[in-house]
Amino acid sequence: MSRKLIAEALGTFILVFFGCGAAVFMGAHIGMMGIALAFGLSIVAAAYGLGAISGAHLNPAVSLGMVTAGRMSVKDFVGYAIAQVIGATIAAFVIMVIAKGAPDYSVVQNGLGQNGFGAGYLGEYTIAAALIFEIVATFVFVTVILGATQDGAPAAFAGLAIGLTLTAIHLVGINITGVSVNPARSFGPAVFVGGKALADLWVFIVAPLAGGAFAGVIHAMGITRADV
């Protein structure tokens, strides 16, 4: 289990470092499409590089979906979630340290690719829109993961399918919430940015976990499972 937890922490670090790092360091140059690709490609890299060790969940919502789908114990979920949050937090810290090397960077003003909604945040969508998007997007994301990793699915393509799905979700939702679908990814940057990012964080914990859990329940019922 220790190797699995290290893999989850490292994999989540990769996701946040490349995804949020792209937003912080290159957002003005690559735009939302570039940021979406950074998140998607990081998942592909982590899935193929670390998936054989831990399954490369990299996301408490994914791990909770595995629990409700009957493919993971609650005890293992707790360990995975803690490792994922640690990896995301370390990644956000590293991004912040690097970003402070620029003369015009401020954590308060420029942020760390944190999630949010409402006045002053990207498209200024309402809290209701943020909740609905995060629940639906996470449900779709975890449904794809459960389907791509089930018995009989072409395992060699699972990482690619998952990464492309995350890219598509970002292409749809960056302007709404910055796209979380992952409580760990949201927690890391929010801790260092503080203020509104920390106040909004509950949305990006509750909504993804709800969407992920529901995807697992639907899978357990056989509705999105092939071997029924």
Automatic annotation (TrEMBL):
GO cellular component, one term: plasma membrane
Record InterPro entries: Aquaporin-like, Aquaporin_transptr, MIP, MIP_CS
Compartment list: Cell membrane
Transmembrane residue ranges: 12-30, 36-56, 77-99, 125-148, 155-181, 201-223
GO molecular function: water channel activity
Protein name: Aquaporin Z 2
UniProt similarity note: Belongs to the MIP/aquaporin (TC 1.A.8) family.
Pfam families with a match to the protein in the record: MIP
Alphabetical keyword list: Cell membrane, Membrane, Transmembrane, Transmembrane helix, Transport
Primary localisation category: membrane
Organism expressing this protein natively: Pacificibacter marinus
Membrane topology listed for this record: Multi-pass membrane protein
